[in-house]
Amino acid sequence: MGGNAKLKRYFPLVAFISEICGDDFEVVLHDAYNHENSVVAIYNGHLSGRKIGSPMTELAEKLIKEKIYEKKDFIANYEGRNRKGKRFVSSTFFIKEGKELLGLICINHDISSIEIVDRNIQSLLKAFKIPGKYKNSGMTETLDNSIEGISSTLIHSTILAVAAPGRPMHTSEKEKIILELNKRGVFSTRGAVKQVADELNISEPTVYRYLRKIKDNTD
């Protein structure tokens, strides 16, 4: 029996979790044997833009490659983001039979409404001069429905790492993003220049100009 066939018994569990958690939670079942089209069941996929047949995230592939599932049954409460910068609190449960990994159940909590409340609270704390603390997790996952694979994921994760979502990027930030992407070999991928230009809201000739500038500085 293949991995996907064995996973069918978990479809009711995924539906059950979604029904309990509600509309702000995306619940995804991944087939560990098919990374290119790993999503075999999903609820509230509109939160990240994914659907059945979408590929596995870069983080999920890393967890499998490093065989984290051999040491842990699950990983809970790490940061997730989609390509538009929307933040999630994410958790992954490993479905195993003995030492064999069949799939992953991933739950992604859209915290947009909580962030609105948090901003209002922080404004009150600031108004009354009460110090506050923000604890950031040490792990970030990019939730992406692009079939273009690793290069697409690297573009989005680099942009999120350099520029804060919700505001226009400075020229220096765009240059830094292109520099980082060039270091990681993204521009050797077909169509990468156009995608980067679209993501940064600049023209393709501008991307090439930045790349020439990088090359001139390294020669």
Helix/strand structural class: alpha+beta
Report the strand count: 6
Rounded to the nearest angstrom, the radius of gyration is 20 Å
Shape: globular
- Report helical residue fraction: 40-55%
Q: Uncertain spans, ≥5 residues at pLDDT below 50?
A: none
What is the end-to-end distance?
Answer: 56 Å
Mind summarizing the main beta sheet? 6 strands, mixed
* Mean pLDDT across all amino acids: 84
Give the strand content: 15-25%
- Total helical segments: 8
The SSE order reads HHEEHEEEHEHHHH
Task: Write up this protein.
The protein is an alpha+beta fold and about 220 residues long. The chain contains eight helices and six strands, in the order H-H-E-E-H-E-E-E-H-E-H-H-H-H. Strand 1 and strand 2 form a beta hairpin. Helix 6 packs across helix 8. It starts with a helix and ends with a helix. The mean pLDDT is about 85.
What key attributes describe this structure?
219 residues, alpha+beta, six-stranded mixed β-sheet, 21% strand
Summarize the structure.
The protein is an alpha+beta fold.
